[in-house]
From TrEMBL:
InterPro entries in the cross-refs: DUF2171, PRC_barrel-like_sf
A Pfam family reported for this protein in Swiss-Prot or TrEMBL: DUF2171
Record-given protein name: DUF2171 domain-containing protein
Length: 78
């Protein structure tokens, strides 16, 4: 599993296809909560598991799923 300490607030999250999925709000347990105020996230909080993270560089969280797959499988926070 990914070292969650590398994932910081405001980092961009992209799919394996390089397309924008959202921006990190914060890490909650084993999930990343995406920022609500991001047009890519439909202005709602969404949760994605850390297990989807392939790697993190200085500016971007790279997922192992495409943008389309991530958005089809993410969980909406209620």
């Amino acid at each position: 599993m990914m070292d969650a300490s590398q994932i910081r607030e405001h980092l961009e999250v992209v799919g394996s296809d390089g397309k924008h999925v959202g921006r990190v709000d914060h890490v909650v347990g084993t999930e990343i909560e995406l920022a609500k105020l991001d047009l890519g996230g439909g202005l709602k909080h969404h949760l994605i598991p850390l297990s989807w993270v392939d790697h993190v560089d200085e500016e971007i969280v790279h997922l192992s799923l495409t943008q389309e797959d991530a958005k089809a499988r993410w969980r909406e926070k209620h």
